[in-house]
Design a protein that fits this description.
Length: 246
């Protein structure tokens, strides 16, 4: 299984910026993406621009969310059929910012996961502890609760499902879990759920990517801020590709 590097753009880059970024990313990567699966996850309004620019290339486009219903009175949501029609290959679900700001729960994360997978989409399902949970020694309890919600909904994880471990205290703060901390959390998650790929997400940047990706249970990265800069994101992808070939 190849390493997976996914860029979560959050609420950045409209269609024009997205087209320019994707064109530049392809130039930066060249053939260097061999051995690594690359995903970009732009905002909904920029999905089609990304798909158009990346069509016929190995770089895939994911959405940042997906609803569990096909249609209905769900203002602001987007269904799997809409994503498929846009050309998206998958979706991120349960990101910590969705949980923190938009009342996402373990249950709704699991429902979104099932809906996307049943539609043939890939899924990156996010789990992770807050600073309060870590300081209270509740990291494993938090991870167990979140992972088991997905596992109960999808007992046999398909190849298209990845779990992203994102220590919430390390997102957008400049703080990063040590490679040992990341490895311990990933090994714990793998012991709970036999998913093929577990990504690390928490202030991943070119300066720390190699030591994080070198850990035996770290199968890739969900990159936030560094994915907005094409040179930084391409460098992380190249690092992953180099490690996968070594």
């Amino acid at each position: 299984m190849s390493v997976l590097i996914a860029g979560n753009w959050k609420m950045f880059k409209g269609p024009g910026e997205t087209s320019a970024f994707c064109a530049a990313l392809l130039e930066e990567l060249g053939d260097d993406e061999r051995g690594v699966d690359v995903v970009v996850a732009p905002p909904f309004v920029s999905l089609q621009a990304a798909v158009a620019e990346l069509e016929g290339t190995p770089v895939r486009v994911y959405a940042q969310n997906v609803h569990w219903e096909e249609e209905g009175a769900f203002t602001g949501e987007v269904s799997r059929s809409m994503l498929i029609a846009s050309g998206a290959a998958g979706a991120i679900v349960g990101h910590s910012e969705r949980r923190q700001h938009f009342c996402e729960t373990d249950e709704t994360t699991a429902r979104r996961t099932v809906a996307a997978l049943e539609g043939g989409l890939g899924v990156i399902a996010c789990v992770g502890e807050t600073l309060d949970e870590r300081e209270a020694g509740e990291t494993e309890a938090a991870l167990r609760r979140q992972v088991e919600a997905v596992a109960a909904a999808v007992p046999e994880p398909p190849a298209g499902l990845a779990i992203a471990y994102e220590p919430v205290w390390a997102i957008g703060t400049g703080r990063t879990a040590t490679p040992q901390t990341a490895q311990e959390a990933h090994a714990f998650v793998r012991g709970l759920y036999p998913v093929e790929r577990i990504l690390y997400g928490g202030s991943v940047k070119p300066e720390n990517a190699e030591e994080l990706l070198a850990q035996p249970d770290v199968d890739g990265a969900l990159v936030g801020g560094a994915s907005l800069d094409v040179v930084s994101f391409a460098e992380i992808c190249r690092t992953a590709a180099r490690l996968s070939r070594s």
